[in-house]
Amino acid sequence: MTVHQIPNTIKTDSFWMPFTANRQFKKAPRLFSSAKGMYYTAVDGRQVIDGSAGLWCVNAGHGRPQIAAAVERQLSTLDFAPSFNMGHPLAFDFAERLAEIAPKGMDRIFFTNSGSESVDTALKIALAYHRANGQATRTRLIGRERGYHGVGFGGLSVGGMVANRRQFATHLPGVDHIRHTHDLARNAFAKDQPDHGAELADDVERMVALHGADTIAAVIVEPVPGSTAVLPPPKGYLQRLRELCTKHGILLIMDEVITGFGRLGTPFAANFFGVTPDMMTTAKGITNGSVPCGAVFAKREIYDGLMVGPDNAMELFHGYTYSAHPVACAAGLATLDIYKDEGLLTRGAQFAEYFRDGLHSLKGLPNVIDIRNLGLMGAIEVKPRDGAVGARGYDLMVDCFNNGLYLRMSGDSLAVSPPLIVEKKHIDDMVSILGDAIKRVA
Ligand SMILES: Cc1ncc(COP(=O)(O)O)c(C=O)c1O
């Protein structure tokens, strides 16, 4: 059902919007009222292509009846059941199904409700694992500059987006960061993975030299940072990171909240790069964005390493009221069915080249300083206006929206990550609207 409302007549005072310039937004709200397939419908009735899969989460496209039916059925059958010392069958089914598509050996699944919770959960598991294995001095957590790992204090601390950190002076102690890999001087307009920068993974050695390997619990990185507008890793970088973590007994956590569930044309980025981490954090596409849910995938050794002490002792003092919520599990199982039936976890591979060529055709337009892509993730970066970082990016985002394309902005970059049901004609339309917007806004 499409509900049309006249923009600007709704009351906007009470909703304190997340990650939004509230006062700016409320002067001219951009509102969606319904969605189907590749399109949102704005409140004024306009069709808007969803170039961002919602927020990198609606991988199977909008309005999937199978998910709606599963949710409805679940709500009227078992609306809630606790997972603390009780359980319900769907939680176990869902975990088994996730384990089936996971990289080999990463088949122990801890449920959360979001990416932020998955990150904090994985960091805590890393600490608990080392302690259980007689390495209680391994408490240091290493993130990366420009990383985004959600908004919990754990994720915030290992994250490296400066604005996100600056407002909250208190971070976890004992956290350090390796350098980011964004290098416009050497890699601007690189297609797929850039050639330069694998050596930046050697920062792990610097961390070890500085702090001592026996103090470091884990390194966490996004395989392809998304929130800082799509920064594909240099060739060989993740492989090197894996080698160094293994060498020093440090757990490698890959934050696959965006890259999980088909974004790169493989089920997970771990498959794409042929790099198996010790844990993966996921959320978003796990339920096609329909019901909040997240999951940490852990290697079996990590789970087994914590299954110590007497059988009646709790092994991990951690969990959420809504871990493995029955409705989320139902939505997730229906989502996995769709992914399987429609081959969506690998479909992106067929379109990656077309997507890449479309985006790179915008090279040469005014103020475009970089174009990046990998799988069905891409970004266009424009030159910041003098003294007004982000202003040109914002104008571009608004122009695109007014002309029928929703894209996520990050500073002066616009990220493109369509649902995985995308067809060539949608890519053509996205590129054309974006190109016109760049010319207008320039
Ligand atoms: C890599 C990564 N980690 C964690 C998060 C946080 O997820 P959530 O917003 O569901 O807490 C995000 C969100 O975009 C993300 O991209």
Automatic annotation (TrEMBL):
Pfam families: Aminotran_3
Signal peptide limits: none
Entry keyword set: Aminotransferase, Pyridoxal phosphate, Transferase
PROSITE patterns linked to this entry: AA_TRANSFER_CLASS_3
GO molecular function, one term: pyridoxal phosphate binding
Alphabetical list of InterPro entries matching this protein: Aminotrans_3, Aminotrans_3_PPA_site, PyrdxlP-dep_Trfase, PyrdxlP-dep_Trfase_major, PyrdxlP-dep_Trfase_small
Gene Ontology BP annotations: biotin biosynthetic process
CDD domains: OAT_like
The enzyme's E.C. designation: 2.6.1.18
Name of the protein: Beta-alanine--pyruvate aminotransferase
Organism of origin: Bradyrhizobium ivorense
Taxonomic lineage from the root: Bacteria, Pseudomonadati, Pseudomonadota, Alphaproteobacteria, Hyphomicrobiales
